[in-house]
Write a structure and sequence with these properties.
Strand order of the largest sheet: 1-2-4-3
Number of strands: 6
Distance between the termini: 11 Å
Shape: globular
Number of domains: 1
Strand content: 25-35%
Oligomer: single chain
CATH superfamily: Endonuclease/exonuclease/phosphatase
């Protein structure tokens, strides 16, 4: 799909606080407000919001995000994303990709191929997603 130079989509990435639920809540308030400002400024509804939310799927912070964006649930979501450097135990899911209705999700997965690497690049497993823009 060809995207015209004057058309935009918005990509935001975050790393919310890992200790304080209040800080996570305040952080998501700032992000959602900024997201609306960017949508208006660039006249677009096509949005990606990704990152380490330091929150489990049932967390109220994520429910607030899901009121306007869709969670791209990985096909292998039971694997988890946060390993704390121990890939042998079950990992927690705290990393997410959310997207607007102006995007179409073709697939998303948690990358586990690197679990056997001699040196891990992070204590989080990456997400790989394929999406397409349906409307700008």
């Amino acid at each position: 799909m060809s995207i015209h130079p004057e058309r935009f989509f918005v990509v935001l990435n975050t790393h919310l606080d890992h200790i304080s639920a209040v800080a996570r809540s305040n952080g998501i308030d700032v992000i959602l407000k900024h997201l609306e400002e960017l949508r208006a400024k660039h006249n677009t509804q096509a949005v990606f919001l990704t990152g380490d939310f330091n929150a489990f799927p049932s967390d109220p912070v994520l429910k607030r995000v899901q009121s306007s964006l869709t969670w791209a649930t990985p096909s292998n979501s039971t694997v988890g994303t946060f390993t704390d450097w121990n890939v042998k135990d079950k990992a927690d899911t705290i990393d997410y990709l959310f997207y607007s209705s102006h995007l179409k999700l073709h697939g998303i997965r948690i990358v586990t191929d690197w679990d056997q690497a001699p040196v891990l690049a992070s204590d989080h497993r990456p997400l790989i997603a394929t999406l397409s823009v349906t409307k700008l």
